[in-house]
Amino acid sequence: MTDSTTLPGMVRAHDARIRSCLEGRSQAHFWHACCPMSGPTEARLQRFQALGFDNYPLAQIPAVDALRTYLFFFERILGAKVVSPAGHDGDFFQTWCQPWISSAAQVSGLRVDLGASPLWQAYEKAISDYLAHTPADQRLPVAFMGLSPFDIACNVCGPEPFCLMLHDEPEAAAGLLDFIVTLLVDAHRRIRGLGTRLVSPYGFPGVYISDLQLPLLSPAHVGGLVLPCYERIAKECGGLTFALLSADLDVLRAALRMDGLVGCSFDKRLPLPEIRKHLGRKIFVIFSYCYDDALEAPTLRDGIWWNPIVQSYSRELPQVYREMAAGHNLLIGIDRPSLAEVLALRSGLQGTIQ
Known about the structure:
Blueprint: H1 7-22, E1 29-34, H2 41-50, H3 73-77, E2 81-83, E3 96-98, H4 104-108, H5 118-133, E4 142-143, H6 149-157, H7 159-168, H8 170-193, E5 198-199, E6 207-209, H9 219-237, E7 240-244, H10 249-256, E8 261-266, H11 272-279, E9 283-288, H12 296-299, E10 300-301, E11 304-305, H13 308-311, H14 317-324, E12 329-335, H15 339-351
Parallel strand pairs: 1-12, 4-5, 6-7, 7-8, 8-9, 9-12
Antiparallel strand pairs: 2-3, 10-11
Helix pairs in contact: 6-7, 6-8, 7-8, 8-9, 9-10, 10-11
């Protein structure tokens, strides 16, 4: 087995390509395959690599959460109670937080000790055990869990009450977001302090953010309140890839100016010429999911697409690839029931610009 086909060797090769891309020394298209495949992790990744995919090897940290790994993880650390209908424990679409913060006084009284949380203790122990039992030259980076500061605020307050708080008690709302961002940054710092290297799920530096409830906000709130939170996270966690679920052009321009931004997925109402104009060498992230036509109508509520798979560029991947591939960095994820379907879609895309 050559170095380039071992998991640590794959990491080194992917890291070199990512650095070259982010430093502007080369243009890159990163292809990620998401499909069932039998066999151990190393064999699966070797096969993906042989087929020209860029799936990034990550440490396999044992699940520490009986409900569902990291489901409402930080909300529960903050004290939220998670509820589900009988028989649906762990089903993301049928599980929610019971709101418990409703006033400025509760926000100002918030305190949390990460080290005292049993959930956090289990997570830290799982990371420590991985480091202790894996030789240093065989350790893989750890993908830090996706972060969602605005979603966390909505979950602990309730979406409508938090949005009302933004108007009626803006200082309390801003204070809650600041508290949440401080918690997230501290969590990232503590895990780095254990001696592990943290990356986003794609192997990019920093963290990944996807606030699914961002469409509830006005452009003024996204630009004035949420983007500064993202920029702080990017600075303190070493980089940021995130989902921009806002169709406002001023928000787009402000987001793409953020220090530390690595890449972004975009609301499909944002015109591709505007994205192309401001993207620079940042990475356009687009995942092509299996699409069910029945999803679009029921998720369009008062002009807002609730489901980010519907709201983001996804079904439009062929158009994005035709218009962006020649001059921009792309991360293209293809989620299909079989490897053959993934390969067929990639082949079709590549054939459009040859």
